[in-house]
Known about the structure:
With 740 residues, the protein is an alpha+beta fold. Helix content is 40%, strand content 25%.
Amino acid sequence: MTDRSSREVSERHTVQLFIHGDNDREALEEFLDERYDVIVDDTLQPVDCYLVGEQMVPTYRETLREHKKEAHPTFTPVLLIQQEGSRGTVPLPSEQNGDGPPLIDEVVAAPVDRTTLFRRVGNLLARREQSVELSTRYEDVQIRFQRLFDSTNDAIFVVAPSGDEITECNPAACYLVGYSRDELLSVSPTETIHADDRERFRSFLQQVQEAGQGSTDDLTCQTKDGEKRQLEVSAATLEDSDQSPVILSARDVTDRKAYARELELKSQAMDKAPVGITITDPDREDNPMIYVNEGFEALTGYSESESLGRNCRFLQGEATREEPVAEMRTAVEKDEPVSVELRNYRKDGSQFWNRVSIAPVRDDAGTVENYVGFQEDVSERKEREMDLQLFKKAVENAGHAVFITDREGTIEYVNPKFESRSGYTREEAVGRTPRIIKSGKQDEEFYDRMWQTILSGEQWNASLINQRKNGELYHVDQTISPIANDDGEITHFVTIESDVTNRRLRKQQLDVLNRVLRHNLKNGMNVIQGRAELLRESLSDDESQAHVRAIERRSDAMESLGDKAETVRSLFEKEVSAETATNVTELVSDIVTTVSEEYSTTSFDLDGSDPLYVRADSRLKLAVKELLDNAVVHNDQPEPEVTVTTRPSKKKQSAEWIDIEIVDNGPGIPDQELETINQGEETPLQHGSGLGLWIVYWTVSLYGGEVTFVNNSPRGAAVILSLPRVSTDSSVQATPVEHN
């Protein structure tokens, strides 16, 4: 037995008969029963083949047609048994038109012989077996395709040729737009895909229809919740025709595009950032820069081509300190971030303070791939900090008490001199008001004027009495200056106080001494001189007269000493203005003229006629007159000679200093006097004989000048007064010389 015979025995096919007439139906059933399972029933059953008599076709035509459509593509054969001589009321397969499979597949004429019947039925069943096998394969392919269709991550839409209907979609498409499958198949594609520009979508479909395929990343979709998503779409037609369904494969690229935009934005931000940004590659030798932004180029003066491939240390130079460099190096070795401030150099050689921040950039595994660096020019801030630090050190070490208050008068800072002078520590003073040093010696009107002055933005200057923590009183000269912000609003006040207690005591002492010397001493000298005159008139012997003359000379010297004490006091009554200028040539000439008339036996020689100006006022006459008087009075020659010269300085810078030189032919200045003046102080064992040279020394010191005393050999002395030279432009007020 062959394999085919074995299959026929083990797998019998089933046929159903629709035959009019019992005899014909029974005869066919008997024939077919040998090989097939035969069903005779008025209701259509699912069998392998149908045998239909011509008269039964009208009854089962629609039922058979519908059944064949449902079973397609599996072949369901229908064999028509047509009476011999029939006019062909049922169309043959070649004559059938319309959609779907033909209703009749084969025709045999009745009466049918056994051989013909088996051959025709066998052929039809063979075709059915082939179709079943093909259908199984198609179904497997379809199942696999459906699985692929359903499981792909891309959203797939099948759109009708008109573009107005979605005929199929996969779960990814439903997830993308937020609709269920049934909802998605019931809405127009343009309600979801590119809903904001439907014509653009239709135009894209038309291009795909024409070209057979296409792609774009310029479409969007709108979800059921109204959210817009950007799509990257690939499309193709399913058939080779002008009106073919189109399959769309859509991928949501919203996040990717957002990331790309963000990346582009960050790239632009890095390129245009106002600070220098660099990226280095630690995998390459010496960790060179592989990226620099425009800010780095502007900051350093080096172009991108001059910077890439180099380590950033090329910005260092002679003034770069090693400490911050070492700190950066250590941080890089440990893969740690770091921020330092150091001096760097631009391409043109200029220095700038660079705040450098470096941070490692790691991959997902934590491995350092790059280093990103930020460079910022902080020169202005650094200079402000250095100035502030210098100012703070100056204030901390100032010889004046300094304290700062807020606008309401609460102390925020005091310097060490305030602490030592007031007795209050910084901790005790900060947070309180200056009332802690208030003595009660100033009335309320005084403080009202103070507040009105400083709140109006003006500086306040006053002398007042404060009280220390232990109750002691002390005198100060006070200056309060308002501090305003950038908007001109007063926010703080800074107060500087000079302790003038000792100065006031010295002034009182000078006043008392002046009164004693000028009044009491002078009155006493008048009494002595009057009594000496009486003695001179009453005594006749030479020895007594000599004693009287000695008393008179000494009393005259004492009276002159009292006059000079007044001169000393007047020297310190006022400060010297920085804008004061005196024509020293004219001043000296005037004094020489006066002294020449006073000492007619003395020869005066004046050298210097060009106008020379010095920073001095009329008090300079006291010093010059004192020196000329000394040159004559203490001269032991029969005819004293005095030479006075005004000229640019020989010892100092001639453009900045003027010398007044006075030379005489007397015995010279006593060594004790010179030593005392040169040392600048008197001691119980070493002191001057009077006030004359001290008056000269103090007067010249007022103007910031210098006095030089020189004894000439073998006789005479020279005194040089060196004084600061000034110009006589519009900013300097020349002091007129008072002529005697």
